[in-house]
Specification:
Layout lengths: L1 H13 L5 E9 L3 H8 L5 H4 L3 E8 L8 E6 L4 E10 L4 E8 L4 E12 L5 E11 L12 H24 L1
Antiparallel strand pairs: 1-7, 2-3, 3-4, 4-5, 5-6, 6-7
Helix pairs in contact: 2-4
């Protein structure tokens, strides 16, 4: 009986979490150089994203792979992220969440600024992750849909404000 219970619990633990992803894109009526200048600093997310009050480096140097930042959400908690890749030439960077109160894990995101049509920029922010709660039936605030909705909202509000700042 004990062996059957252990086997059942082990298979539940061993089941891989469904990979989730979010990609948001915005076209901005400004040159890629201008948009990149506004958004490239790894320690500057709070300067253009309305959801963050503070962004400070706790390890490393700005825009250097391996650098860790502490992000403080407005009226909320702080979490840590690590810069995985940074390309000045390609106007892109990639980072991962190390520690966070968010209902997700294994989060890796990429942010890029590319030339669009007629002197515009196309900014793409994408992420892959899994939800934190391994249960087959997690509470509504911790299910796949909630995790995707949360990141979609973060990306949309950030990109909308970046567009406003770059075009303003």
């Amino acid at each position: 009986l004990l062996a059957a219970a252990l086997a059942a619990s082990w298979s539940a633990v061993a089941a891989p979490m469904k990979p989730l992803s979010v990609t948001e894109t915005v076209e901005i009526k400004a040159s890629p150089a201008k948009v990149w200048a506004l958004s490239k600093d790894y320690d500057g997310l709070h300067k253009w994203h309305p959801g963050f009050a503070k962004d400070e480096l706790t390890k490393g140097r700005n825009n250097t792979v391996g650098t860790v930042r502490a992000l403080t959400i407005k009226d909320g908690p702080t979490f840590t992220e690590e810069l995985l890749a940074f390309s000045e030439a390609d106007h892109s960077y990639q980072y991962r969440i190390i520690e966070s109160p968010l209902p997700l894990q294994n989060y890796v995101a990429t942010f890029s600024v590319k030339p669009g049509k007629e002197s515009t920029s196309v900014v793409t922010w994408s992420a892959k992750f899994t939800r934190k709660n391994p249960s087959d039936n997690p509470p509504a605030a911790e299910n796949d849909e909630a995790a995707v909705k949360l990141i979609t909202g973060v990306f949309q509000s950030g990109l909308a404000n970046l567009k406003k700042k770059a075009e303003g």
